[in-house]
Amino acid sequence: MDYNADIFHVHKYCFPTSFDHGHSHRIIGVSSLGIRRGNTHVHCYHGVTTLDNGHVHNYGGETGPALHLPGGGHIHCYRGITTFEDRHRHAYEGTDFPSCS
């Protein structure tokens, strides 16, 4: 499947961070439009975690390549580490919600 056919779409994402320093956060947002990478595409993303334990963390990066779903559409993987706040940081990884494109 040619994932460059329509890169003009975004993905919503929502998943938890790791449990560190006695708590975790949630990462919720919407990716950028698709960015061509060879015969696939990726998306950029960034934002601020949910407010938990009296603070937030910033996060951001570039998704993995498009992963085709058997029923159509595709998803992307997210993985990274938040900024250092309140003497700690959190790791995160997850996938976004499928695109219909």
From TrEMBL:
Lineage top rank: taxon: Bacteria
Record-linked Pfam families:
YmaF
UniProt name for this protein: YmaF family protein
State the organism named in the record.
Desulfosporosinus lacus DSM 15449
Highest lineage ranks of the organism? Bacteria, Bacillati, Bacillota, Clostridia, Eubacteriales
